[in-house]
Amino acid sequence: MTPGFLFATGIENSSPTINGGSLRMDELEKCGHYRYWETDFALVRDMGIRFLRYGPALHRTWLGAKRYDWEFADAAFARLKELEIVPIVDLCHFGVPDWIGDFQNPDFPERFAVYAAAFAQRYPWLQLYTPVNEIYICARFSALYGWWNEQLQSDAAFVTALKHLVQANILAMRAILEQRPDAIFIQSESSEYFHAENPAAIGPAEQINARRFLSLDLNYGRRVDSEMYEYLMDNGMTREEYHFFLDNHLKHHCIMGNDYYVTNEHRVCANGDTLPSGEIFGYSTITNMYYGRYQLPVMHTETNLCEGPRGDEAVNWLWKEWANVLRVRNDGVPILGFTWYSLTDQVDWDVALREDRGTVNALGLYDLNRNIRAVGRAYHKLIADWREVLPTQSVCLRIPIIMPEDQRAAWCDARTPRRAGHGNEATAAPSNA
């Protein structure tokens, strides 16, 4: 059965390195998932959620060139299939194995594509993928701010990380499509905006606002504007590399995943420094900007807020984000899903994983003891209230997703297109349902 609206959550699997590469911030370990993974999957099902942003730890699974340890992934994905939960497979989330090094390594894209192909071949029932998560954020935090992985702070390092991450994403999409021709890619990316603090800050703000689009421009084969073209060329991208991105024609396999947090908007000073601004435009306004640029179906792929002393802060944020989703739909944008990220509380995200403090961030539908939070109860009710309403009362998408329970159906093979040259029609197309 093809689903209507995609209500989702995620299990946080960030794994960047810090301290010069000597310490890995493995959120699956910090949040207890390796111990409680079966309980976690049961909680997803109990919540009434059918879609889960999830992936095995890359550094534990990808051991070397064509060397893999599938033991944990085999057990985890088998259980998800039994529970009829559809994974949106998150293959690379802010970190790579030690043997790769970091995102400055030019061998990373080709080698990652080999890993993606091996993964898709091993788990042929999986259809939805985010090959590389939040490319812009990963490149910015690793190579411009100096927080993670290579811990560099230069435009040249940022452009190098950016191009390698996007190349890896594109090559992985190609590799997955060879194994699963009807694969759909939900490209989770941070949707941001930078506000000029004063007239002198207008120029710097415009430049940063142009830079925020680079990962998606390159991923979707869209020509960048002239200032960003010069920026890329001045910082190490070659014309050949740029045309690799322009010649990429995989956009019709993609859904644009827009992530939004209260931290996604910024004040820009005259010298180009940025400060938190809090929510000014909000998700609906910024998502309309991104949709206008790329004209792709949209999914709200991440949001959360800490439960504070009153106990209702996260609940109020959930309803605000949901109101934004409905506003986007009413504006005529084909938005097909919503995600509270993540299933459980997280650890050390209050310092963006820059330090190993062990601080629990109360961001989850459940706490780390797997007790439901107020926002978990609110999300469960939201899903129950809206699941049957949205497909019949507003513009939605008919998405060609084959659910786990249908994988063995005779018509499944008939619906799965065979790859013939470049012809591959697995597009999420708008429709009035």
Automatic annotation (TrEMBL):
A GO biological-process term: carbohydrate metabolic process
Molecular function as annotated in GO: hydrolase activity, hydrolyzing O-glycosyl compounds
Superkingdom of this protein's organism: Bacteria
Gene3D superfamilies associated with the record: Glycosidases (3.20.20.80)
Cited Pfam families: Glyco_hydro_1
UniProt xrefs under InterPro entries: GH, Glyco_hydro_1, Glycosyl_Hydrolase_39
Protein's name according to its UniProt entry: Family 1 glycosylhydrolase
Organism of origin: Noviherbaspirillum pedocola
